[in-house]
Amino acid sequence: MDLDGYLRANGGVARMSTLLSAGIRRSAIRRALDAGRIDKIARSWVALPQADPSLVAAAQIGVTVTCVSQAERRGLWSFGAGESHVAAPPNGRLNRPTTAHVHWGRPLVARRPDALEDGIINTLAYVAACQPFEKALVIWESAARKELVVRETLARLRFGPQGRRILDEMSWYSDSGIESVVIPRLRWLRVPLRPQISIAGHRVDLLIGDRLVLQVDGGHHVDAQRTEDNRHDAQLMLMGYHVIRVSYHQIVHRWHEVQDLIATAVAQGLHRIP
Predict the structure, then answer these.
(1) What Pfam families does this protein's entry cite (predicted)?
(2) Of the residues 146, 168, 190, which one is the last residue of a structural domain?
(3) pLDDT tens-digit profile of 214-228?
(4) Is 56 helix (H, G, I), strand (E, B) or coil?
(5) What is the pTM (predicted TM-score) of this model?
(6) What is the rounded CA–CA span in Å between residue 165 and residue 247?
(7) Contact in structure between 10 and 41 (CB atoms under 8 Å)
(8) What are phi and psi of 136, to 5 degrees?
């Protein structure tokens, strides 16, 4: 593989020694630097001008992108990473100061010395150790939905206490991160909570008891999708179900109101068959 092709296949950033080990000649690297096709971004590191800024920063600092930052990079559902999260070896030293949250220590799965982003197992392990249970659960279930992890593999790994708790409680069938949040928050009601039940030809997000349906709208519930949602809601109500439809914003920012709606419906017995 030529220099440009190798860099494009690896996020646009690589250590010089890694390029040489891959069979790329030192003279080819020097010509690319002289021509401005690649940049020297740190001692012994080069990158394409259009390389991923997160990976460039990781190479310059001497860290690996991980935890919620890497979860977002992998397209996993979360509430937003906020500050950057990176990992560094135990007793290591950074090449330059950083405002990122640094996870010091040995990874659960050994990583290459020049790895700039963590694999999915290490990412989930740091998420479990770092984040509140609910947020970590959402990220783990998102990885399961994308089939990035296998239950049997996770069960054989030595996660910490919260990682084991997540593995015990996570659902492998939730349709969205929001559903992963809602079910744990409603368990105190002590009524059956069944996600992704098919009723009248469509799945509902959550069936509470026998007759109360909770539907959670994401950003895609517009136009034709909204029309189909309204049609299905009407069909459910004609069948004797009671529908509560809420938005992503309500779940994340106004949960107390959503919880009160559901609790009031349960208090009226709307979750039971008359």
Answers:
(1) DUF559 (PF04480)
(2) 168
(3) 998 865 555 677 788
(4) helix
(5) 0.77
(6) 28
(7) no
(8) -60, -40
